[in-house]
Amino acid sequence: MEKPLQLCPGSVKIDFASASYAGKADIAATAAALLHALGPPRTPPCYQLPLAKVNSSLPLWPPVICPSTFAQKRPMSLPSPPPAKKLQVQQSSSMLPQDFPKLEVLPVEKPTKLQVRRSPQHVSPALKQDSPKMERPLLPRPATFIDVMLSSQKPSSEMWSETKDVTLTRKTNCSCKYSKCLKLYCECFEKGRYCIGCNCTNCCNNVNHENARQDAINVALERNPAAFMPKVSNSTAHNCESKAAEGDIVGKHTKGCKCKRTECLKKYCECFKASVFCSENCRCTGCKNYKSNADRISQKNTVHAHHVQNPASSGMVGQSVIIFHAAENDSSLSLAASALSCSLTSSVTREDAKSLVKYAPHEVTYRPSLADIIQIEDVNELCNLLILVSRQAGATLLESGMKENTKRKKLNRVDSCLSSTNHDREAIQKEPAKQMCSLEKSSNEVLIAEGRLELPRADPFDIQKGNKRPLSPGTQALMCDEQDAIFQDSKAPDATPSTTEENLVDIFKEQEKLVLTNFRDYLCKLATCGKLQELKLSLASTNCSEQAFADHGNNSSITRVAKDQTNNPSVLQQGGKHYRSGRLILARTKIGNAGIWKLMGQKSPLHNGVDKC
DNA sequence: GAGTTTGAAACT
DNA sequence: CAGTTTCAAACTC
Questions:
Q1: Of the residues A170, A452, A467, A523, which has the maximum number of CB atoms within 10 A of its CB?
Q2: pLDDT one-digit tens code per residue, A282-295
Q3: Is any atom of nucleic acid chain C found less than 7 Å from the CB of residue A510?
Q4: Which residue is nearest to nucleotide C7 (CA to C1')?
C-alpha cells in the first residue's frame, strides 16, 4: 500500500523524495529525471495546488493535478497548427476545456484471443478478472503531472484547441481495442492521461481501474524508467513555453526513430509526428526529415517545427567565444557577455531555419527571438561601451582618490606637527611601499625590455598569458585599463600605499557598479526593444505570407543568404529589399547598430572616434 | 468506413 | 541485442 502524497500547509506538494516512491527507485528516478529535464525549476520542484481542490481519490502516479490549476497552466487562446479531430461531442461556446462532455457508457468486451495470448506478467492481476461493467464517471479531465510537464514542451493546444466555431478539438483520442489502454501503445496512457472521451474499448485507463492502471504504470516504468518522460527533449527548457507559444516547437526526439519506408516524412515517424527533425538518436534509413530538405520544408502543412542552423558551421559560436573571452578578466563584463552569449549562440528563428539550409542535418540548436536584434557587432559595441564606462569610472575615481590623498597628506602634515611619532611611523609605512612601487615598475620595465613581459597594448593576436588564447580587442581594452590603473597608481608620487590600495578597491567596486548598472540599463532597453520588435513582427507576419518565405527560403539564393549572413549577419540585400534569414529586417534596419546606442541614450564609441585600445 | 501500411512497443 | 509479433495510428481508397 502506497503512502499518500505529502501535503504542505495550504497546498498540495508532490514531493518526489517522499515516501510515495519509497521502495520504487525507478519511479523516483523517473520523477527526478523529469524534474531534471525541466531544467531550473520555475517553481519549486513540487506542484502546488489549492488544498481545497485536493481529491483524495486521485491516483498516485502519474500524480493528478486538478483541472483548474491545469487550465491555468495551459492558456487556451493559442492556435493549433495541425488539423485535429473534432470531438464527437460539440462543446458549447461557454464550456471551459475542463468541462468535459458527458461520456457514454462503453461496452465491456470479452477478452479476445490476443488478450489471452498475452504474457500474464504484463497484465495486472486486476485485469485478469473481467472488469465490472462500470459507467465512467463524469469527471473533469484529470490533468496529470506528466500533462503539466508536457505542457511546458508542447503547445498548449496539444490537447485542446479552440477552433473558429468554438468547437473544442482534442488531438489524442485513442481507439485502443486490445491493450485496455494500459500499454504504451495507448497514447493517452503514454502521456499519463486518463482516457476520457476516447473511442477505446475495454478501457482501464481511468479512475475506476486505478489499481490496474498503477500496476501497468509500474510495469512500464520497470521496463523503461523513462517511459513517461517527454519524447522530445527541449534544449531551451527555460523558455520552452514561450517557444511553444510562438509555434516553435524545438528539440529532438530523445530516443529517435527507426523508420525505413516513410523517409521520416509521415506521421508514422515519431520525430516527424513530434515536429522535430531527426537527430543523431535516430536509426532511420532514407531519412528526409532534416532541416535542409526541400521535401521536408515543402510539407509545411504538417510541419511545425523549425529546424535551425548548426551554429558551429555558421561561425556564430566561434565569434561569440572570441568576443566573450574579451570579458573573462572582468566579472561584470563577463556576466554581461555571458548573458548576451546565450542570446546569440543558442537560438535560431524559424525563418533562419528556412533560409539556412546547407548545414549538418542532425545538429540542433535554438535561438531566442532577440537573436534577430542582437548581433555580434552589437555585443562588441556593448562591450566597448562597458569598457569605456569602466575606464572613465577608473579615471574619475582615481583622480578623486588622488585628491583625497592630497587632502589626507595635508592633514597628515598637520598631524605631524602635533606628533612627530606618528610622522615617523607614517614615513616608515610609506617608504617600503614607494620602494615596492618603483621596484614593481622597474621590474616590469626590465621584463618588457627582456621580452618576458609583453606590453599592455599588444597586438590583437598576441597570446594571452597562461591560456594561450588570442586576445580580443575587448580583452586588451580590459587589460589596458588594469595596466593603466596600476601604472597610474605606481606613478602617482603622492599616493600613499594604504590609500592606493583602498582607492583601487573602491575604484574596482565603482567600476563594477557602473558597468553593471549600464548593462542593466541596456538590458532593460533591449527588453523594450524586443517587445516592440515582437509586436512589429507579429504585424508584419500577417502581411508576409508563408509563400513569401517559401519563395525566399527555397530558391537558389538561400545558400547565398546563408553565406552572406555568415560574413555579414547584420544586413542582407536581396532584390532591393532588406532580408535577413527570410524575414524582413525590422530590427536592424530600424534599430541597427546605432539603434542600440540610441536605446542607451549614448553615441556609439565606435562612431565617436574613441580609442578602442 | 474498411482495408492497408507503418513503425513503436511488446515479446521471444 | 536482434528478430518477431502485436498494436494502434496514419494513410489510402
A1: A170
A2: 888 888 887 766 55
A3: no
A4: A185
As a rounded value in angstroms, the CA-to-C1' distance for A214 and C4 is: 28
How many CA atoms are closer than 13 Å to the CA of A116, on its beta-carbon side? Answer: 5
Give me the residue spans of the domains in chain A: 7-88+102-223, 231-307, 377-515
Burial of A332 (0-12, 13-18, 19+ CB in 10 A): buried
Q: Answer with the residue of higher pLDDT: A504 or A102.
A: A504
Encode burial over A43-56: b for 16+ CB neighbours within 10 A, e otherwise: eebbbebeeeebee
pLDDT tens for residues A402-459?
A: 666 555 555 555 454 444 434 444 444 444 444 444 434 444 444 444 444 443 333 3
What is the maximal distance between C-alpha atoms in chain A? Answer: 111
Which nucleotides of strand C lie under 7 Å from a protein CB? 6-11
Q: Percentage of residues in chain A with pLDDT exceeding 90?
A: 0
CA of A18 to C1' of B9 (A): 31
Q: Is A465 helix (H, G, I), strand (E, B) or coil?
A: coil
DSSP E strands in A345-436: the ranges are none
Give the cell for residue A367. 535561438
Q: What is the pTM of this model?
A: 0.34
A185 touches strand C (CB under 7 A): yes
> What's the CA A365/C1' B12 distance, rounded, in angstroms?
40
Residues 519-548 of A with CB under 7 A from strand B: none
- Of A90-104, A431-445, A504-518, A531-545, the range with the lowest mean pLDDT is A90-104
Query: Could you tell me which residues come within 8 angstroms of residue A141 by beta carbon, excluding any fewer than 6 positions away?
Result: A67, A70, A97, A98, A100, A193, A194, A196
Q: What is the pLDDT of residues A324-351, one digit of tens each?
A: 333 333 444 444 444 444 343 333 333 3
SS3 per residue for A48-90: CEEHHHCCCCCCCCCCECCHHHHHHHCCCCCCCCCCCCECCCC
The set of strand B positions with any atom below 7 Å of a protein CB reads 5-12
Three-state DSSP state, A584 = strand
CA of A197 to C1' of B9 (A): 24
Report the C-alpha gap between A553 and A560 in whole angstroms: 11
Check if the beta carbon of residue A429 is closer than 8 Å to that of residue A440: no
Task: With CA atoms as reference, report the closest residue to A255 among A218, A286, A230, A285.
Answer: A230
Grid cell, residue A486, equals: 596600476
A266 touches strand B (CB under 7 A): yes
Express as a percent the part of chain A with pLDDT over 70: 23
By CB atoms closer than 10 A (0-12, 13-18, 19+), residue A269 is buried
Nearest to A346 by CA among A312, A299, A380, A322: A312
Using alpha carbons, select from A129, A597, A515, A568 the residue that is nearest to residue A314: A568
Q: Is the CB of A185 under 7 A from strand B?
A: yes
Which residues 207-266 of chain A have a CB under 7 Å from nucleic chain C? 266
Of A308, A259, A250, A251, give the one whose Cα is nearest residue A288: A259
Using left for φ > 0, alpha for ψ between -120 and 50, and beta otherwise, residue A463 falls in beta
